[in-house]
Write a structure and sequence with these properties.
heterodimer; A: about 575 residues; mainly alpha; three-stranded antiparallel β-sheet; two-stranded antiparallel sheet; elongated; B: about 450 residues; 22 helices; about 70% helix; about 0% strand; SL1/TIF-IB_Component (chain B); TAF1A (chain B)
Chain lengths: ~575, ~450
């Protein structure tokens, strides 16, 4: 800390009247003579670390090098900032507009830093960094009981490996109540890991995805959350080993690993819920309206999923009808309003999938009997109608056969991918400098063995992941084997009634006669495979595969839609009983 | 929609009041997120599946992913990723490219560095593998290297492993000694003398003897080691020690029951002209443990010749016991022993009660087992001698009217084989014996 840093501040000290200023670690001015600390802080703009000139670092002193080889002092939120930047760039490469990175995400992040008092604010007295916390569990720690000793956080958790060897190391470091970098590369790593019962959201790796999705949503980009997560898992968006692209001088070790090293696939529900929390935390206004021609609108998204599921285009009319009837196409319903706690939050992809499921139930009943009979009926009809107008009629049986085969193959591939997933990267992390050589040797051995057995298996691991694609399944009408059902007509299952085309099927079964109380069980409906028809389960599993979420999530949405659709019939009660309804 | 049907709805799960909030939700096992260890678990399932189907390439493919878990394996678990990778990798390499020993060696060397506790075990198994591939020298080198390894305090398991390593090295020393001995004998035949070879031979003897002696002290099954050690002792003339070793190996109650021990002892005693008494006592135990042992024939022969009544009685017991086993059904030697003894008893007309005693427990099932009409036919067709001996026994035990005897003697006489006529006469003459035996 040179005198130059105090740069031109020539006021006399209040206590000793000297002009002899220096800067503390916290970036405050202090009088070197009498060690009086004043309120004035110094902001440093450092552009060499983060090229985006608009983002400023948090207020602190100049980067001081502790030792020659130890690198910079850096704060955890800087790390997250870098991660977000990498993710934004990856999204840009995938086709997202550059506005996302330069404006939206960046502003969200700054606002977050401000709200959580990590930057852009005055430090409280005492020069300690406020400990930040979350209300719920986060990252890889699944609902651990709360303890405040460092020792606890270094004990083995379900998702992390064996850290017991480092327990002794941690305990000797002692409780760090001020910002120390003893057990982590970052300055405030140890504090970050500690949990406190405060309302503020603590940043975590899954939350970076929440940030990204929030920005995408704000800009109404054509990428759903399930797509985003799929790209993450496929390696197109840095997440698992994002730290490996940190600058050389930003050393990561010790407790930083707990923060930045991810060892589980992101879960849709978690990322989504965090996003909602985040939006509320940042006091964001109502998001831009989701209108009819927006990608996330059910009408558009349904079309995409219908194509991907190899269903006839004509079904789109039906999905639009369902959306209209249940008023789910309204901008007020679809648009996210963080402040409005009572409004149910919409998961666009799940909603679209559920709408399609409902439409299939409307037309085919899906009770393990009717759809097959209807399929035969439809093929009979086609035979009778030999003029061949409008192309082939859609037959559930044929569709089922094609999709089942494809789904089995793809699901098998996905399962194998999960088993073969490589979590580690070339840049190994270590808990302490003492362990470094051991870890590096291990890494070397791992690479050797992988080479040896890789050659044996003859599989050369592709250097690049397969090209990112919005569609996981694609069907082409040029295929002569008739495996593409897009152009098929629904005439086989429709009949004319009073001049309108209606479904031949006149029955419907509800998935549940009563929705659960979300506050008590966490969901509005529960799903158990054995309780429902196999066709229904098949359709759910198809969309479950496409969206990479559990069938129960889609099932829940289906229940909600059904209740909206059949609202009048369900809640028709005689007047004198009205008071008994909750 | 005209009708509204309600499908089977799942009611929310019942729960006890006052439970913590997070336990209200119905936990679904499917919803566990994919994390590092879970994906490695899945990987292991695929590896296991591929191994069982002998799909080595596929197993190698998945193993490549599984190997990552080494980076997180610093635990002291017994069957952790390190152990699994070692075992699975060995299996794949041995089966996929069995001839590529260099690959295998480099793999094993890496495995040795994976864990202090595992080092000796890996060395030992590596040595086995080399031996199986005929690489004796390499195996020897490995064992010597392992023997000289030191790392802090040794656990009980490691002590045992070290002893095994020393024992196997001793065995290989014996093998070298044996080679030298053969060379020396060759030289002697040709009239050469080579001091250096002899010295080497003695050197190997010393090294081998020390280790072999050590290992056979520990209760266990050390057949190969014992044999080698005894061989060494015999060559250098230390018969006393050899006898002690073998006796101890056979009779020490701490050692597991081992028929071979008694066989070795018997063979040694026979080699050195031990008195009949000790031979018999050695074989007696073998008879008790393994009544169907091949040495029982010799045993019976020895006992039959004896003057002592008890021994002859025992001989009869022994031979009957041997023929209780299916493996001896068609053995001519065994039947001829029994036939001889039975004939002798019948002729002497003494001790028919012996036969009666032995026959008592067998008369229910031996007829169907040995003397069925089908067997009569097949024995006659396959082996005349066999059918002769059996017919004699059948004639005495079951009388001249039994199926077996009638068939064989009829065909034998028809074929005009002289001895069958004698046989017929004999049985007819001594039909009273049958009556006596059958208790009539």
């Amino acid at each position: 800390m040179d005198e130059e840093d105090a740069g031109g501040f020539a006021e006399r000290c209040a206590q000793c009247s000297e002009v002899n200023w220096g800067l503390t670690d916290g970036g405050r001015f202090y009088c070197r003579t009498c060690h009086n600390v004043i309120e004035r802080t110094r902001e440093v703009v450092s552009t060499d670390v983060i090229p985006n000139a608009r983002i400023q670092t948090i207020s602190k002193g100049s980067r001081s090098q502790k030792k020659a080889d130890e690198g910079w002092e850096w704060y955890v939120c800087e790390g997250f900032q870098l991660v977000l930047k990498q993710q934004a760039e990856a999204l840009e490469a995938l086709g997202v507009c550059p506005q996302m990175k330069d404006e939206t995400l960046c502003n969200f992040w700054r606002r977050y830093l401000q709200k959580s008092q990590q930057a852009y604010c005055n430090r409280p007295a005492g020069e300690t960094i406020k400990t930040l916390s979350v209300c719920d569990s986060s990252t890889d720690m699944d609902s651990e009981p709360e303890q405040s000793s460092l020792l606890h956080f270094l004990s083995v958790s379900e998702s992390d490996g064996d850290l017991q060897t480092d327990c002794s190391y941690a305990s000797s470091a002692g409780k760090a109540s001020e910002s120390t970098s003893v057990c982590s590369g970052s300055v405030d790593g140890s504090l970050y890991v500690r949990k406190n019962r405060k309302e503020k959201l603590r940043m975590s790796m899954p939350m970076t995805l929440s940030f990204c999705y929030m920005a995408l949503l704000w800009l109404k980009e054509p990428m759903t959350l399930s797509e985003l997560l799929r790209f993450v898992v496929e390696g197109h968006i840095p997440y698992f080993n994002a730290y490996q692209h940190f600058p050389e001088k930003m050393k990561l070790y010790g407790l930083d690993l707990r923060i930045f090293c991810v060892e589980s696939w992101p879960v849709y529900e978690e990322v989504y819920n965090k996003m909602i929390e985040l939006a509320a935390f940042l006091d964001l206004p109502r998001f831009p309206d989701i209108t009819n021609n927006c990608f996330l609108h059910p009408d558009v998204l349904c079309m995409k999923y219908l194509m991907e599921a190899n269903l006839p285009d004509e079904l789109h009319n039906w999905t639009c009808r369902v959306v209209k009837k249940t008023s789910m196409g309204e901008a007020d319903f679809l648009t996210l309003t963080p402040g409005n706690k009572s409004a149910r939050k919409v998961k666009y992809d799940v909603l679209a999938a559920a709408v399609i499921v409902v439409v299939l139930k409307l037309l085919f009943l899906l009770d393990d009997h009717y759809e097959w009979l209807l399929s035969d009926f439809s093929s009979e009809r086609k035979k009778n109608n030999k003029e061949g107008e409008g192309g082939p009629y859609f037959e559930f049986k044929k569709w089922y056969k094609v999709i089942k085969c494809t789904l089995d193959v793809e699901q098998k591939k996905l399962d194998e991918e999960k088993a073969k997933y490589l979590w580690k990267c070339e840049k190994p992390l270590f808990y302490s400098v003492k362990k470094k050589s051991k870890i590096l040797r291990r890494r070397q051995m791992v690479e050797n063995l992988q080479n040896q057995f890789g050659k044996l298996s003859g599989s050369v691991r592709p250097a690049e992941r397969p090209n990112p694609s919005s569609f996981q399944l694609s069907w082409s009408e040029e295929n002569t084997d008739g495996s593409c059902f897009h152009g098929h007509s629904l005439k086989g299952i429709l009949q004319e009634k009073h001049g309108l085309l209606t479904a031949i099927n006149t029955d419907y079964w509800l998935c549940t006669d009563e929705l659960c109380n979300e506050k008590l069980c966490g969901h509005l409906a529960h799903y158990r495979e054995e309780d429902f028809p196999k066709s229904y389960h098949f359709v759910l599993s198809l969309f479950s595969f496409l969206l990479r979420i559990q069938p129960s999530s889609i099932h829940e949405e289906v229940c909600v839609i059904e209740h909206k659709l059949f609202n009048k019939k369900l809640y028709k009660k005689p007047r004198y009983n009205r008071s008994l309804r909750k | 929609m005209d009708a509204l049907q309600v499908g089977s709805a799942l009611q929310p799960a019942l729960h006890l009041p006052f439970l913590p909030r997070h336990l209200y939700r119905a936990a679904s096992s499917n919803e566990r997120r994919l994390n590092f260890w879970r994906s490695k678990e899945l990987c292991l399932n695929y590896i296991q599946d591929a191994l069982l189907r002998k799909q080595w390439k596929r197993a190698a493919e998945f193993l490549t992913s599984y190997i990552e878990s080494l980076e997180k394996d610093f635990s002291t678990e017994y069957m952790g990723p390190s152990e699994i990778i070692w075992r699975v990798g060995t299996e794949i390499l041995c089966n996929h490219s069995p001839s590529n020993v260099r690959e295998f060696n480099s793999f094993i060397e890496q495995m040795k560095t994976l864990g202090v506790k595992r080092y000796l075990k890996v060395c030992l198994e590596h040595a086995f593998h080399l031996l199986c591939n005929g690489r004796i020298d390499e195996a020897y080198q490995n064992l010597s290297l392992a023997e000289s390894w030191r790392f802090g305090e040794r656990t009980v398991t490691q002590d045992k492993e070290m002893k095994l390593i020393q024992a196997y090295r001793g065995l290989l020393d014996y093998y070298s000694w044996s080679n030298k001995k053969n060379i020396l004998l060759e030289y002697e035949k040709d009239g050469f003398e080579d001091m250096s070879v002899e010295q080497e031979m003695h050197g190997f003897f010393r090294k081998a003897a020390v280790n072999l002696k050590e290992i056979i002290k520990i209760p266990g099954v050390w057949d190969l080691f014992v044999k080698s050690y005894v061989d060494l002792l015999e060559f250098y003339g230390d018969h006393q020690e050899a006898r002690e070793v073998l006796t101890d190996y056979a009779y020490n109650s701490k050692f597991p029951a081992n028929p071979n021990a008694h066989v070795y002892l018997y063979q040694f005693l026979k080699r050195h002209g031990a008195p009949k008494k000790s031979l018999i006592s050695a074989l007696k135990i073998l008879h008790d443990i393994v009544p169907s042992h091949e040495l029982m024939i010799d045993f019976n022969t020895m006992l039959q010749k004896s003057k002592k009544r008890k021994r002859r009685r025992l001989g009869l017991e022994v031979i009957f016991a041997v023929l209780d086993y299916a493996g001896w059904k068609k053995n001519v030697k065994a039947w001829s022993c029994l036939a001889r003894q039975v004939k002798q008893i019948v002729i002497s007309e003494k001790h028919l009660d012996w036969i009666k005693q032995e026959w008592n427990s067998r008369k229910d099932w031996w007829p169907a087992f040995h003397f069925s009409r089908y067997l009569a036919k097949s024995n006659w067709q396959e082996n005349e001698r066999l059918s002769y001996e059996k017919a004699l026994v059948a004639g005495v035990l079951l009388g001249k009217d039994c199926k077996y005897f009638k068939y064989v003697s009829h065909h034998g006489c028809k074929a005009q084989v002289k001895k069958f006529r004698t046989l017929k006469k004999f049985v007819n003459k001594h039909s009273s014996a049958y009556l006596s035996i059958s208790g009539l």
